[in-house]
Amino acid sequence: MSRCRAVLVTLVAVLAAVPAAPAQIGDDWSLIGAPDLLRRAGSGFEPLPILTMRVELDVDGVMVRGRIVQRFENPADDVIEALYVLPLPERAAVHAMTLAVGSRRIVAQVRETEAARRDYRAARREGRKAALVTERRPNLFRVAVANINPHETVDVEVEFVKEVTLEDGGWSLRMPLTYTPRFDPRPPVRPPAPGDDDRVVPAGDPAMPRVTFEARITAGIELAGVESPSHPIDMRREGETLVLTTTPPQVVADRDLVLRWRPLLPDTPQATLLVGDRDDAAYGLLLAMPEDDRSVPSAALPTETVFVLDVSGSMQGRSIRAARQALVRALGRLEPMDRFSVVTFNHGFDVMSESLLPATAAEVARARSWIDRRDAEGGTRIAPALERALALHGARDDDRNVARRVVLLTDGAVANEAELLRDLASRLGTVRLHVVGIGSAPNAWFVRELARAGRGLAEFVPDAAAADARLDAFVERIARPLWTDLELDLDGLDPVDAFPDQLPDLHAGEPLVVSLRLDGAIARRAPVLVAHRAGRTVSVPVRVVPLADGDAVALRWARARVRALLDDLHRGADRAEIRAQVVALATEFSLVTPFTSLVAVEQIRTAEGSARSVRVPNGQPAGQPIALPQTASLGPLLGWIGALLMGVGLLLLVGAAAFERRSVR
């Protein structure tokens, strides 16, 4: 029987290598809301109905303050833990959460993420009510609510802040009410746990969540119109505030709710400073809008442009074709009064002309021919090429009768972003740096940061097919900034911090938005915004508007400060030091960040038993079929492997036993 025992030991060892049933989802935070897209029905999948859902948005200028209230009921006869994914607008900053059970309200506190998870797990284990919010992606947050008793009703209130999105000369806000489940082509490192999927409720199901929605918009400037392309809305005015509600009052949560509003472009420039007080300081949000560009003299300033084209090895294939097409398109938009040159670079650089050329048809044609002969190869050294481009402009920093600029076309595939950004600002002078990100996966952060440091604009061209349309719009935007060299004069009051700290140029239809922390009162002061427009200096009076609640503008400043600190990480700052500053700021302003989470814990045990985890599904997105791919899980495969190994093992045991009987004979 020794061989039988050997075979049996081998079989046990092999079966032990097959992954066991995974732990309860609540015990492994990496599994909550995992991207495995499954539509299973079986033990462990029990929808927890959302009785009501309410979304309230307050918009002050470009700052949005949102509040979501979801009421759940445990229909089961045992204690449960509710787990779900909460979709929020992109770049939303969650800063508050309250757990309400009957008359009891448990207010969340910001803790470092690992400490928050420990507190939550301890409370769940000990039978105390608890809730935890962590950031999963910039627009998806994970929420867990522990120890909901049988037939008990719980309200979860989550508050967030964000900025509206600028597009097509207006503002928009997209409020996700559900989300499309993610498919991850990578095989999971472990099989999914029960409930470990991004579940949705089919359209028409009685459990489909309904939502009540209200938005209050105080724009700070006159609006030309407000609309919602996604839902019918009612509008009424309360003083300077527009109140928007859906029609009917409750709508199915099966699509994003989108609002758009467009400012009425004034004949004269406007500037407003929204000011709110907190105990520690006063915080401001500056909004400025250039005048309608039709009211500005149409004679544009001549331009001097040095185009810098990346021809390094990472640009091979579609990227170099897109870059060439984009550059040729930009050259075609130059006027005869403009002057230009072209620099290409990889590990070195080449210059088409050591002096700026008039943009005549002959010179533009020569430039096109020169560009077509450049192939993508070699390394990527941006700094020498940018230095040469700036040298072509010379040192005429006081000449305001010409728009001087560098247009860089690159995929940004460099490893020394921090060094480049540090060195750039001091070299530019009055030259503006505009950056065009090339290819399907450019270094988008670096592209935007280069443009921001150069007080320019960023654009992205994914392929040659998109080059013409993208470059036409881009060249139109950079052709004639309406305001340049902006300075904010607060009538003797200096801001402690301002973001952005260097004010950008303003183009037609684009507002200036600046967050300020003020060390003193501004109520009796007369601030002005100074800028250069069409070759002359203008001063725009700033209207000061006190806010009854200053938390929104304060949170906007804090969030901008956190973002600036996180950007410093990309520039090579010390991680431990940045983490400490972010945690301190997030704790002061109660912000969920990559390093902090919100946790609410009841101090006494109220659970009537041990909790089991259930997954709360989101609504099925409108227009999406309910049959969803099930290819991301290895669970069925592992099951078949286990069954096959058991069958092989039994055959081996039977064969070994027969062999030993024959051997005995």
Question: How would you summarize this macromolecular structure in one to three sentences?
Answer:
The chain is an alpha+beta fold and 665 residues long. The chain contains eleven helices and 35 strands. The chain folds into three domains: 2-21 and 634-664; 26-262 and 590-619, Sandwich (Immunoglobulin-like); 303-477, Rossmann fold (3-Layer(aba) Sandwich), CATH 3.40.50.
Structure, described:
The protein is α+β, with helices and mostly antiparallel strands. It has three domains: 2-21 and 634-664; 26-262 and 590-619, Immunoglobulin-like (Sandwich), CATH 2.60.40.1730; 303-477, 3-Layer(aba) Sandwich (Rossmann fold), CATH 3.40.50.410. Strand 15 (233-238) and strand 16 form a beta hairpin. Residues 7-45, 180-206 and 614-644 have low confidence and may be disordered.
Q: In one word, what is the shape?
A: globular
Q: CATH architecture of the largest domain, please?
A: Sandwich
The CATH superfamily name of the largest domain is tricorn interacting facor f3 domain
Q: Largest beta sheet: what is the strand line-up?
A: 5-4-9-2-1-13-16-15
Residues in helices, as a percent range? 25-40%
Sheet with most strands: 8 strands, mixed
Structural class: alpha+beta
Let me know the number of strands. 35
